Amino acid sequence: MARVLLADDHDLMRKLLRTVLSTRPGLEVVGEAADGPEAVELARTLEPDLVVLDLAMPGMDGLQVAGAVRAARPDCAILVLSAFDAEHAAAAALAAGADRYVEKAAGLHVAAQAAADLVKA
Questions:
Q1: Domain count of the chain?
Q2: Tens of pLDDT along the chain (121 residues)?
Q3: Positions modified as 4-aspartylphosphate (predicted)?
Q4: CB neighbours of 20 closer than 8 A, spacing ≥ 6?
């Protein structure tokens, strides 16, 4: 079972992601963070296999969180799920240490499939 940490400052988005990811075999949401510093701390303490991360969060943005998670847990997969323009944001997210970028506009099922794919790899 792959352990997943959700990091998004919107409570509704975290709840929706939790609901959709829970329908995927092999994925278990083990924690939720509402800001960047909390995401980094939970990534260290919960030792997830995957962090699903928004770019726009208080305290630390998603790029900073991705870099901190990658440094602390190099084996942890990072999926950035954001509403920002994909071309610029995707390049920045990948450069910061993310493994994959998905636009929120693509839909939650696309994000869930990307999450499942990352933990299978």
A1: 1
A2: 999 999 999 999 999 999 999 999 999 999 999 999 999 999 999 999 999 999 999 999 999 999 999 999 999 999 999 887 777 889 999 999 999 999 999 999 999 999 999 998 5
A3: 54
A4: 108, 109, 111, 112
